[in-house]
Design a protein that fits this description.
It contains five helices and no strands.
Length: 114
């Protein structure tokens, strides 16, 4: 729903608005709030259009929700096109070199690593 509010929150806000504003002023207040929301949405859409225009055609399918940290992390973890596999990591580690480095390390360093 609106701003991730559930139905109970919307009902609570409506009841509070009726109590605070009264039934006479409530329609005018609703018009004002909807006007502000409409202006904010149009500003947001204009900003998004400007960002797309500045970034160029390679980012034409970019959505501002794609830039949210939660979405970025989700894409990086679950939808990575080049995911790193355990085999890739173990192939890049040269155990013989690590063992040789430990044997040639100074005695003080060898004590710290054990």
């Amino acid at each position: 729903m609106l701003f991730d509010m559930g139905p109970l929150e919307v009902i609570a806000i409506a009841v509070i608005a009726i109590i605070v504003l009264g039934p006479e002023k409530l329609p005018g207040a609703i018009r004002q709030v909807s006007s502000v929301i409409h202006k904010l949405r149009s500003l947001s859409q204009a900003a998004e259009t400007e960002i797309r225009k500045e970034l160029g055609p390679e980012y034409a399918d970019l959505s501002l929700t794609d830039l949210h940290p939660r979405n970025l992390a989700s894409k990086a973890i679950f939808h990575a096109e080049q995911s790193i596999q355990l085999d890739d990591v173990t192939k890049s580690i040269d155990l013989n070199k690590i063992i040789a480095d430990e044997k040639t390390a100074p005695p003080a360093f060898s004590k710290l690593t054990k």
